[in-house]
Structures are given as structure tokens and as C-alpha cells.
């Protein structure tokens, strides 16, 4: 008999892009009314890099959130970061130092590149000392030896040597491999020490390269274009296997990243999928299909909190089996992932 209702501990989203201004006001409720906490990524048009900016952004999020919702703040790692600045950032309540290598994703031009990480080991030592998390978008854009651009589908795998070097040189530093999307990096995380974990998204479990790109490698569906890009069917299966495995090294981070429809329909569409309104129903479908529905709560509500050293949320959410049609977009003109499709589960 099929399960008709689930009641689980209130979940956490360990990777979300709220944006700012009007978009923030329109997209945040899809996260803040369901999740107890969310790691708010700081890659805004003017990246969050200082304690003052982090405090202001936290208040902007909390002002439009239900009482009890707690944003977990991050700052973006740029070339001017120092151990002393890490101390100041930590005192301001920031939990995450986020690295998006330069030009890898939205608003990342000020980030350092993976080749330069070796110059910041003293900074990472301070991150470890104060108990912060080092959260990294592991992609390598150019071959360090030849200078040639690496095809997007190979960039995550090409970054693994830098992850390996980081694990060796920054022993004990808590590292989160964000939005792991290839079998090879997932296998690396499995075998890595206790301090290395990864977030997994719903969309990397549901979309592969052929859904996004035509045979010539051009984007055919800009609304499925994200970074890291969707990979092969085998990589997609590896994401599903990891998220349903019960391995505490893997936990949920939606990487929900809204963009206006007119931007997505431009000649150079920005990367990002707005998945926040549908992530819990989609995860229910994935876990049920794999006959692992009993493992969903650990994936979304426990493993991330434990790795971050946070108490479990005390609230509950109710999810029931009831068909509903996903709206195509929200009022501010942002298309919803799976818009127009019918899902089998919904959050009450």
C-alpha cells in the first residue's frame, strides 16, 4: 500500500540563492515557510564580503521571513581575504566561507581561481580554527598547463585534483563540495575523510545533458541551464544513488537560483534553476521511486545540520500524496522548475 502522508522534522536547505530586492521578496517565502534554516549564498551583484554586509543581508532576509526562520550567512571568498578578516566575519555570526571560482557562475568575477587556493592556506586554517565551513563550487575553467578552456561537462571532474590537494593541505577543515553532479566527485567524497561532505540538488537528479543541450552543444532549454551543468545519465544516477544511500556525507542543498524569464530567454541566458517551490515534492517522488522514502528525513533534516554542528529543528512539516499542477511562473516573472507539470506530493 502506498504511503499517503509523511510527517518529518522541519528540513534545512544548505544552499539557496535568495538574490536581493524585489526578487528576494518574491522567492524567499518558498523557502522560509517550509525550511527551518537555509544557507544564503552571498553572490549578489555586489558580493557579500564583509561582516557589515552579512549583517545587513541577514536582516533583509529575516524581515520578510516567518518568526523562527534562521538564515545561515555566508561571505564570498575574494583575493583580499585574510585570517584577521575571517575572525571579524565569524564574530558577526557568519558560518560559511564560500568560494565560487572567478567567472564560474553568477556574480563570481571577484572570486579567486582554484589554482590560487594554495596561497590561502593560512586563511583556511583560521576558518577551521573558528569552526566555520568552507563551501566550494568545484569547477576548473581552464587547463593550468595549456591555458585552454575546459568544456563545461568536464569542469567538475577537472577540479578533483584541487579538492584532493585541499584535503591533504587543510587537514580537518570542514569542506562542502557544493551541488556535486558527477559520479567521480561523488566517489571522491565517499572515500574522503570525515570532514568532507557534499550537497546534492533535486534538479541534478532529474535532468541530464541531453535535456539542456542540442547535439551541437548549444543550449536548447535555458530554463534547465544551471552551473554546474547537468551531466550524463550515469552521473544523474550517481546523484540519485548518493542522496538515497543514507550516507551522512550527502545532504540537501537546493541551489535554487531564480532569474527573470526575459533574462533566461536572452542570447546569453544566466545559469540557474528556480526549484524552491517544488523541491520537497520532487524529493518525495525520487525517494519513493527508489523505495527509500524512510531515508528522506535524514537527507533533508539531519545530515546537513549535523555536519554544520547545528541542533536539529524541533518543528515538523506534513507532506501528503495529492496531485497538483505546478504553476508556470511566480508573479515576478520567474519560471518554476517543472512548471506546468503534475506532481504527486505536496507540502501541506
How many separate domains? 1
CATH arch. level architecture: Alpha-Beta Barrel
| Oligomer class | single chain
| Count of discrete alpha- or pi-helical segments spanning 4 or more residues | 14
Instruction: Classify the fold: give the CATH topology.
Output: TIM Barrel
> What is the topology, as strand order, of the major beta sheet?
2-3-4-5-6-7-8-9
Give the overall silhouette. Answer: globular
In angstroms, what separates the terminal alpha carbons? Answer: 21 Å
- Total beta strand runs: 13
- Detail the poorly predicted runs: none
Q: Rg to the nearest angstrom?
A: 19 Å
Strand content: 15-25%
Biggest β-sheet: count, sense, barrel? 8 strands, parallel
Give the integer mean of the pLDDT values.
95
The secondary-structure element order is EEHHEHEHEHEHHEHEHHHEHHHEEEE
Q: Helix/strand-derived class?
A: alpha/beta
Helical residues, percent: 25-40%
What top-tier CATH class fits best?
A: Alpha Beta
Describe the structure.
The chain contains 14 helices and 13 strands. By secondary structure, the chain is an alpha/beta fold. The protein has one domain (12-314): Metal-dependent hydrolases (TIM Barrel), CATH 3.20.20.140. It is globular, with a radius of gyration of 19 Å. The two termini are 21 Å apart.
Secondary-structure blueprint:
Elements: E1 5-9, E2 12-16, H1 21-27, H2 29-32, E3 37-40, H3 51-63, E4 70-76, H4 83-91, E5 96-99, H5 121-130, E6 133-136, H6 155-158, H7 160-169, E7 175-177, H8 183-191, E8 196-200, H9 203-206, H10 209-212, H11 233-243, E9 250-252, H12 261-264, H13 279-289, H14 296-308, E10 316-325, E11 329-330, E12 334-335, E13 342-347
Parallel strand pairs: 2-3, 3-4, 4-5, 5-6, 6-7, 7-8, 8-9
Antiparallel strand pairs: 1-10, 10-13, 11-12
